[in-house]
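Notes continue from the previous slide.

Worked example: a multi-chain complex. Inputs as given:
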Amino acid sequence: MSTAPVVLDNVSKWFGDTVALSDVSYELFPGVTGLLGHNGAGKSTTLSLMAGWTSPSQGTVRVLGRDPRAEPKVHEGLGVVPDSEGLWPFLTARQTVELLASQRGVAAAGAAAKAALERVGLTEAADRKVAGFSKGMRQRVKLAQALAHDPAVLLLDEPLNGLDPAQRRADVELIRRLGAEGRTVLVSSHILTEVERMASRLLVVVNGRLVAEGTAEGIRDLMTDRPRTVRISTDDARRLGGLLLADGVVHAVELEGEELTVETAQAVALATRLPVLAREAGLWLRRVEPVGEDLESVFAALTSAARGVGR
Ligand SMILES: Nc1ncnc2c1ncn2[C@@H]1O[C@H](COP(=O)(O)OP(=O)(O)OP(=O)(O)O)[C@@H](O)[C@H]1O
């Protein structure tokens, strides 16, 4: 069996007729891994399985070498930020964090809570009741709770939800540091540009299936043959559009003044043929700009590609 801190081996999970996860296998290693998927893709189910809150219908889950469902001791090395609220409003931030640290068997729970609250930037608010906290502050209390016992594995379900831009930047930085310290961190998100800033490795889940895995760049490469849109600015857009269509490297063109927008399923061929065709026709390429090269677009393409294969 693998020694990776988290191992999913042929894991499926269904609720009645709903398949939340379908035959998923991967390992998590130290550093930050992003788990990407739209609402309902199976992210929270994955985290629940790793936290031992639910059992797989099939397959095995191991966290720090243990079955998290059968061995609650796993929580001594595991910190979880669930997407649910679950905070007692009548406790202060300090009491909230201290309580869980004690439950996790931390001897100096007070000192651990103080350090964790400081880490997430809640020192000044530590003795205020959670009831008056903003969504962003409550998220930070949950993060401090997850950190207080210094776990080797952290599972964070959409941890940036409800944060303002400054808080997001701070938390992206904090999560990166947690990974750099050698912890195994899994961050779920539906916002690719955000998770891309934290995670060195991405797992993309669509309809409960793992559809792509790798670095953000690697995932883009996987999508080389997906349909792409390219905007071209030239001195005779109509002529160039005709040449590209005749050459067969694009399947649609749209003209707007000197701007030409083309659709292609052969990005590499277009990149090779475009300068040749322009040169032969004596046309000047002012600007060539791919549209939608961000991960959001790649993700949308993966999603529609996987839809037919879904449940
Ligand atoms: N306890 C449950 N009972 C029935 N169906 C469930 C249960 N938990 C999850 N599901 C279903 O399993 C699928 C995956 O849900 P999950 O919450 O894991 O997705 P998600 O990617 O976390 O999405 P979200 O961000 O919206 O929570 C969904 O179709 C959901 O409706």
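Summary box: The mean pLDDT is 89. The chain has two domains: 6-215, 228-307.
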